[in-house]
Amino acid sequence: MYICLEGIDGAGKSTQIKLLEKWLTDNGLDVEMIVEPTSSPVGVLIREMLQNPRATEPDFQKTLGLLFAADRMILKDKIVENENNPNNSNKIMLSDRCFYSSLAYQSPFEWIIEINKYAKRPDLVILLDMDVKTAVSRCEGTDQFEKESFLKKVKKNYLKLAEKEDFFVINANNGPKLVHHDIKRVLASHLGICIEGIID
Ligand code: TYD
Fold first, then answer.
1. Closest Cα to atom 15, ligand 1: which residue?
2. Distance between the two ends of the chain, CA-based, in angstroms?
3. For residue 136, what pLDDT is reported?
4. Count of domains in the chain?
5. What is the domain range of residue 76?
6. How far does residue 54's CA lie from ligand 1's centre (Å)?
7. Which of 19, 60, 64, 164 lies deepest, with the highest CB count within 10 Å?
8. Distance (Å) from CA 198 to ligand 1 centroid
9. Does residue 158 have its Cβ closer than 6 Å to ligand 1?
10. Ligand 1 center to residue 109 CA distance, Å?
């Protein structure tokens, strides 16, 4: 299974994904972590470019869109390899972001779909939905005002996608413990027999 956590910057994905990995492995599941942008040369370039003060400008975002799509193609081999390995029938690939980040952050929508045509779609997406002001206050550097208006658009895009693509939406404004609990509930009911009975 390929499971992805999505959310705006500062929504608490990194904390939740660590808690989730521990919970799944503690309960005997084989978990492989994926992070986008990846550590490939393209991913490294993306992280460097994200530091640019012009990063939220439309043309810059288009360049990033292309790079994210390329980074995702490099990652695809690993996902397909895992899926095709008969020893991996119980393996969970747990991803910090995926194709849907590009749909929420970059534009235009149809073009992003086109350049990501060959990217793997996750089996399940959990969206951490957080108040933009709170999320921005957790982000370091950059122009806070610019960041806030940018993330407002991203949040709106995520919520539209969530409806269209059946994401599980979790209220991430609650403390980390409660959010973790809500995520476990979603996974337990979705994975059914696989992890039934291990919720505390
Ligand atoms: P993030 O997971 O927030 O990184 P970190 O935890 O290191 O802060 O992702 C880095 C940034 O990349 C974030 O601002 C979202 C952005 N991003 C896109 O704009 N499009 C994409 O397709 C992806 C995967 C990420």
1. 9
2. 23
3. 93
4. 1
5. 2-197
6. 15
7. 64
8. 31
9. no
10. 17
Residues 6+ positions from 27 with CB-CB distance below 8 Å: 195, 198
Residue 81: CB atoms within 10 A of its CB come to 10
Q: What is the CATH number of the domain that holds 90?
A: 3.40.50.300
Residue 120 to residues 3, 82, 147: CA-CA distances in angstroms?
Answer: 11, 12, 29
Cα 169 to Cα 82: distance, rounded to the nearest angstrom: 27
Q: What is the pLDDT along the chain (200 residues), one digit of tens a residue?
A: 999 999 999 999 999 999 999 999 988 889 999 999 999 999 999 999 999 988 888 999 999 999 999 999 999 988 888 888 888 877 999 999 999 999 999 999 999 999 999 999 999 999 999 999 999 998 887 677 778 999 999 999 999 999 999 999 999 999 999 999 999 999 988 876 455 445 44
